[in-house]
Amino acid sequence: MAFVKMNVKKGDTVVVLSGKDKGKQGKVITAMPKHGKVVVEGVNKVKRHTKPNQKAPQGGILVKEMPMHACKVMLVCPACSKATRVAHKEVNGKMVRACKKCGEVIDQTK
What we know:
Largest sheet: 5 strands, antiparallel
Strand content: 35-45%
Number of helices: 0
Helix content: under 10%
Distance between the termini: 22 Å
Low-confidence stretches: none
Shape: elongated
CATH topology of the largest domain: SH3 type barrels
Radius of gyration: 17 Å
Strand order of the largest sheet: 6-3-2-1-7
CATH architecture of the largest domain: Roll
């Protein structure tokens, strides 16, 4: 499976662009570039019915966040607090992510 170039990383704040949670903001818990998906805190929640087992002796209904496709979320710039596309530019010999709207450096990439 090919890696998908994603502009969001673990810890970024993103806004959901489409789907049942459109407009909601949350923090990226997990980024999965191999699958092109992200898990966002408080977004895309589903209920899972579990039977009692040794791990969870009571069982019941669990609510958890499920992965969603990375193209459905957009990074929120920490400087201007707006949803923005991401630019990549070189600063002091290192590639960094920058906000397309205000031009501020978001953080450093590897």
